[in-house]
Amino acid sequence: MRSPARGLAADDQEEGTDSTPLLPGVRRAEAAPVCCSARYNLALLAFFGFFVLYALRVNLSVALVDMVDSNTTLANNRTSGECPEHSAPIKILHNQTGKKYQWDAETQGWILGSFFYGYIITQIPGGYIASKVGGKLLLGFGILGTAIFTLFTPIAADLGVGYLIAVRALEGLGEGVTFPAMHAMWSSWAPPLERSKLLSISYAGAQLGTVISLPLSGIICFYMNWTYVFYLFGITGIIWFVLWIWLISDTPETHKTISHSEKEYILSSLRNQLSSQKSVPWIPMLKSLPLWAIVVAHFSYNWTFYTLLTLLPTYMKEILRFNVQENGFLSAVPYFGSWLCMILSGQAADNLRARWNFSTLCVRRMFSIMGMIGPAVFLVAAGFIGCDYSLAVAFLTTSTTLGGFCSSGFSINHLDIAPSYAGILLGITNTFATIPGMAGPVIAKSLTPNNTVGEWQAVFCIAAAINVFGAVFYTLFAKGEVQNWALDHHGHRN
């Protein structure tokens, strides 16, 4: 019986070596068990690492509301009158022992944006260092440094806004190395037919970290005070670092408790994909159109992601008129959907490749289209349903949820085209993809001076258009097999 993948991947014949999930002439190694395996233990601990990482990243967004004297921003309250009030005030005993600061809206913008100015700097250096010395220590110390600077956040705020901005930028420097370092580690740990599963598990921690830390930070602020947000999350990061250093190794060869069968399975599956050359082929790499396809897709996806991550609470409050308690919960719900989608899509993507013989390129294209076109459609729809609160929340949640498909699309395509340099490639693409984190919310704010529904429609339509462009560009120029420049010189596989 003819596999359904053959018809779907017919346009991929030019891929040659990618017409099947495995390289031609390579015998598929017998898969090692999943239960208690070293590679899935790595994925699980990485999951908690990225959980902590995003908790450390987004906690300030919630705590800042409690750090600022409400009288300072009262004059700038621009709640829209287009949608009627529908939330009854919920009174909760609020601990007022935390110190308040006289920071206006512009100052708050600088504080929130300072993280990205550090984050963008260490992406490419992080990928390069990880490719040379391994990702374990780089990732571990990146999160440890972020946790330590988080502990100093209350002191920095008390010293002055300049110190707080500097601390947040230093946190960004620490977090900037983490994703490239993790990609570099997976280049040595992830068998090709398990990449989607393993990477989606590890990176899904970021989504769940957002889901839990947003409302949890609000609860801590209400029942304790805002300083404990930074102390509790910072201590959690330090505990994770101890476990990471104790339990994880850079490669299967150096792991102390890995079984012989699992080690052989991983090494044999990667033997024909890794390069032995010591120098980085920078020029061929930067000329590679498949790399730029990932850059465009990553930039486009992050435009929508960062715009919503930064401004969704504002939209919930100013347009949809949800109170602060409802806002914290409803702003977190979309990221729970994205987390669930990431986990399930990773399983589905690898099953399509291993059991149904879908080509790698076909799977990456398909999941990227679902993860970019789908969110664009529902994002635009959310802007045009007026004040239907339930439907607006449903559309925004669906939009963010569908974005989880990208975790098995362009997000891990670096490992398909150049596993030996995956960390460096992710550093390059994430450098460009950080720009929307700095520019997107600023442009969105400038487009919504009066906080009207029409102004927000423009914000959503621009984000959707960028997403669609990225999906089309990626579909046209992406590849699914290891590129010649990523192998040994003259294109030889060892």
Tell me what you see in this structure:
With 494 residues, the protein is an all-alpha fold. It is built from 20 helices and no strands. Helix 5 runs parallel beside helix 9, helix 14 (289-318) runs antiparallel to helix 15 (324-354) and helix 16 (360-383) packs antiparallel against helix 17. It is globular and about 65 Å long.
Question: What's the arrangement of secondary structure elements?
Answer:
Elements: H1 4-8, H2 38-67, H3 70-74, H4 105-119, H5 123-133, H6 136-151, H7 153-159, H8 161-176, H9 178-189, H10 195-223, H11 227-247, H12 260-270, H13 282-286, H14 289-318, H15 324-354, H16 360-383, H17 389-402, H18 413-417, H19 422-447, H20 453-477
Helix pairs in contact: 2-6, 2-10, 2-11, 4-8, 4-19, 5-9, 5-19, 6-8, 6-9, 6-11, 7-8, 9-19, 10-15, 14-15, 14-16, 14-19, 14-20, 15-16, 15-17, 16-17, 16-20
The radius of gyration is 23 Å
Specify the biggest β-sheet: none
- Care to count the β-strands? 0
Strand content: under 5%
Residue share in helix: 55-70%
Q: Give the class from helix and strand content and strand pairing.
A: mainly alpha
Topology order in helix (H) and strand (E) letters: HHHHHHHHHHHHHHHHHHHH
The helix count comes to 20
Taken from the alpha-carbon principal axes, the silhouette is globular
Report the uncertain regions: 1-27, 489-494
Mean pLDDT: 86
| Amino- and carboxy-terminal Cα gap | 35 Å
List keywords for this structure.
20 helices; single chain
